[in-house]
Automatic annotation (TrEMBL), chains A, B:
Coiled coil: none
UniProt binding sites for NADP(+): T15, G16, A17, V18, R43, S44, S162, G163, N326
Molecular functions (GO terms): aspartate-semialdehyde dehydrogenase activity
Assembly, per entry: Homodimer.
Assigned keywords, A-Z: Amino-acid biosynthesis, Diaminopimelate biosynthesis, Lysine biosynthesis, Methionine biosynthesis, NADP, Oxidoreductase, Threonine biosynthesis
Designated name of the protein: Aspartate-semialdehyde dehydrogenase
HAMAP family named among the record's database cross-references: ASADH
Domain Semialdehyde dehydrogenase NAD-binding: from-to ranges: 8-123
Superkingdom of origin: Bacteria
Pathway assigned to this chain's UniProt record: Amino-acid biosynthesis; L-threonine biosynthesis; L-threonine from L-aspartate: step 2/5; Amino-acid biosynthesis; L-lysine biosynthesis via DAP pathway; (S)-tetrahydrodipicolinate from L-aspartate: step 2/4; Amino-acid biosynthesis; L-methionine biosynthesis via de novo pathway; L-homoserine from L-aspartate: step 2/3
């Protein structure tokens, strides 16, 4: 990508939960944009998005829509990325892809800027944005890994419905009202829209996010396992995940157990290392009941960490509670951070 | 306690979430009751409970209310148990206590009948019913421990608001409606009524159940850790817990990681052992998206287990998802099972 003072930026999936936040984040950082080109499926053509107070018309996401585009942020599902990302690259764009389509491809950097920003330099046209639940976990753990080493991670997630898109947000609202009213509850979206069986999410918990793999793990769980190792450059790190969808709208929370390489680390030392981490806010005050929650993290860009405890039996074991807005640091904000790093590296070169 | 054909049974806390279910469960098993004596605080005196289609008037829970009582089921909070359990015992009753008041006392058996029914024989007037989140976990793990040994447990819980009583159930309803309406949300009950700070539970997750201990764990987490070791008679078992309150009404779910003493156990073998366990139902069918949820377990007496997986790195590691109705197996049903075992042992003697 040629270094410029202003860039043409396409948003693929501009009407989606993440796409809308991408536009917000570009605005938030005053990204040097010449033309913003919101793209979506045919049925959204002509609708408007608002950017810096101006209405911008949505165009159809197809190959020639990428003519003249410098940076294309994709968040319209894996099939759209598989179909159009290479078309965008062929037309000279750098793609920052927020789907799972290319994340594990060898030639595609998978980036959380606070963790492995330098990997961006190796891109061959596509840079992948990790899975939402992965980003906040590796973001929280990287300073710990750098300071004390890390050899094991076991995570149980508490994930909001917005990770399944705006339809799932509406489904939770509708089902919640129906249950409060004692009327019939329709379940059509969660846990996975394309699967045969749907369960109510309102006042419930669903231990399925994405489809099942042959090894009995869900694809979401395998994403957390594989992506964590790739981002941290730690193929031998032991990672296990159980992913659960819950009835809240925004932010994911995670109960994370880790084993580090040292036996003698205290809680204040661990808190200190986390607090110093880039993009991390420590909220851990047991005297004043201070800890992050999905509601407190909503709309925030940071990764929040609380409930830091030493394991009572394992001298190198610690427990943490990690919360972040899944649409922001977990998706749109991380993508825009990658775009910022990309143009920064461009001007270095 | 003298063996009889019918018993006088007191319910302390008869108007509470658990007390009401205790009466339901006594009815459900046609417990041989001569007189049912529902007890509660002064302000509930004169209110009625329904038992076998008859109205029974609530009396005040005070020392002389236990005259003539054979079995007293307590579920009115730890302070009431501390004040009145010994009064009941002095008057000849056996107390089955559903609070944390006596659980860790050396002379008080802590019982999940499927796990350690024989401990009941050692009682000295008081038998303790474990914490709700502990019961379902040890119930699910005991058959595994017996077959393969067990040396490590790490649990992250997903707990319903009814564990904090009927006020918390109402709070979740009210807050949910207020959030859906976009009106002001009041938080006065959760996470802990007596603590200074309250957070909304509707569309949120609170990583605090009960008060904090000096070691940064909550009392709920320490209950799970200590009670599990006591019930299983396994003081050296490594147990770690993170307890989280969530916006659903009934049932607790748990993401449980275990390490057993064998390296070569397969998923079907593990499923088979769990399925054979008393009071356990295996619901684990990844082909048909089969797994338990809080809503599916509501009103059921069993412990439901799904999502059985081998850890991908640790050869003796397994992950499970355990769900049960916290007011039933987690409280009222387990207490009534203890009462049943007690009178059974009486007639043996």
């Amino acid at each position: 990508m040629e270094a410029k003072s202003r860039y043409n930026v396409a948003i693929v999936g501009a009407t989606g939960a993440v796409g809308q936040k991408m536009i917000d984040m570009l605005e938030h950082v005053a990204f040097p944009i010449d033309e913003l080109r919101p793209l979506a499926s045919k049925r959204s053509v002509g609708k408007m998005v608002t950017y810096n107070g101006r209405n911008v018309a949505i165009q159809e996401a197809k190959a020639d829509a990428f003519e003249g585009v410098d940076i294309a942020l994709f968040s319209a599902g894996g099939s759209v990325s598989k179909q159009l990302a290479h078309e965008a690259v062929e037309r000279g764009a750098v793609v920052i892809d927020n789907t799972s389509a290319f994340r594990m491809h060898e030639n595609v950097p998978l980036v959380v800027p606070e963790v492995n920003k330098e990997a961006i330099r190796d891109h061959q046209g596509i840079i992948a944005n990790p899975n939402c639940s992965t980003i906040q976990m590796v973001g929280a753990l990287e300073p710990v890994r750098q300071k004390y080493g890390l050899n094991r991670v076991i995570v149980s997630t508490y994930q909001s419905v917005s990770g399944s898109g705006l339809d799932a947000v509406e489904e939770l609202k509708d089902q919640s009202q129906a249950m409060l009213d004692g009327t019939a509850v329709n379940a059509e979206i969660l846990p996975v829209k394309s699967e045969p069986k749907h369960y109510p999410i309102a006042f419930n918990a669903l231990p399925q996010i994405d489809t099942f793999e042959d090894n009995h793990y869900t694809f979401e769980e395998m994403k957390m396992i594989n992506e964590t190792k790739k981002i941290m450059g730690a193929p031998d790190l032991s990672v296990a995940a159980t992913c659960v969808r819950l009835p809240f709208f925004y932010s994911h929370a995670e109960s994370v157990y880790i084993e580090i390489d040292q036996d003698d680390v205290t809680v204040p030392q661990m808190q200190g290392v986390i607090q110093e981490g880039e993009g991390i806010v420590l909220q851990d005050d047991i005297v004043n009941q201070g800890y992050p929650t999905p509601l407190s993290a909503e709309g925030q860009l940071d990764i929040f960490v609380g409930r830091v405890r030493r394991d009572l039996d394992v001298p190198n074991g610690f427990h943490l509670w990690v919360v972040s807005d899944n649409l922001l640091k977990g998706a749109a904000w991380n993508s825009v951070q990658i775009a910022q790093a990309l143009i920064e590296m461009n001007s270095d070169a």
